[in-house]
Design goal:
The protein is built from one helix and six strands; from the N terminus they run H-E-E-E-E-E-E. The protein has 71 residues and is mainly β. The protein has a three-stranded antiparallel beta sheet with strand order 1-4-5. A three-stranded mixed beta sheet has the order 2-6-3, with no helix packed on it.
Length: 71
Amino acid sequence: FSILNKYEIITLNPVGEVFEPKYHEVVKILSVDSVENHNKILEVVQKGYMFSGSLLRSAKVVIGTYNTIIT
């Protein structure tokens, strides 16, 4: 039983989710080879936390961006 659970604090660990600026802070952007990973969270650098529907700390994340090169 964690102290976070005792106070009903929710941990944000959004790997694989779509980037949402309301809850996530981008610290790095990586180029990805597939459009499915565009704007998705590839890695969590620092977890975020919520309490009673309010954001305590945003999750610091690495996201992917898919860029097409037209030649």
